[in-house]
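Hello,

I think I submitted the calcium ion job twice by accident. Can you confirm which output corresponds to this input? Input:
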Amino acid sequence: MPQRILVVEDEESVSNLLAYNLRKAHYEVHIAADGRQALQLARELMPDLVLLDLMLPEIDGLTVCRELRRDSQVPIIIITAQGEEIDRVVGLELGADDYVCKPFSVREVLARIKAVLRRTPAVFPSSDKIISGPGQLWLDTEKREVKVQKNQLALSKLEFDLLHLLLTHPGRVFTRDELLEQVWGYDYAGDTRAVDSTIKRLRTKLRTTHPPADFIVAVRGIGYKLTQDEAS
Ligand code: CA
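Support: Only one job matched these inputs. Its output is below.
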């Protein structure tokens, strides 16, 4: 069965170009031309991935991203234009998995889609449905939900998978390369900065506890681990 991609883009020339190339790469493609349609189609079609332009009529892309994350872990790649760096950062904080900048090459978009889709949660050994961590942290592997002190967090697929791995190996130090291999599931062009930036976003989201605590700690010169301490 082909994987289903929802392309959200109001510029017809761009959505046509993407649709043509994605179909050629054997994906099933659906197009939404505004934010309202995007949310509707995402609910109806349950796509495997959403390619989301941020500048949209009706409902803007960031709002679409936030709305999608309320009840879905669908991988989201945002498309930003030059001068939209802030939106890009906000988009990632809202739970987008990756981004591409306009003007983009089709080859780059395809590579990113492939990479995001390839990150599979199948590598995780624990069969427990609910995993608990420090500071009233709960992770539901079936619903793919994370709660801290009863507050549900909006995590991207990648952030969820990363936290899942750390939670199932408390206290174990993972090197950046190990995290790349196990969570990203491939050699992310050897770019360990991807690990650092994802960890940083995850930490910020986890720091919603009272008092704020860091559960993920950097181990100098090695990598990261999940601390067992309640306070830090
Ligand atoms: Ca647009």
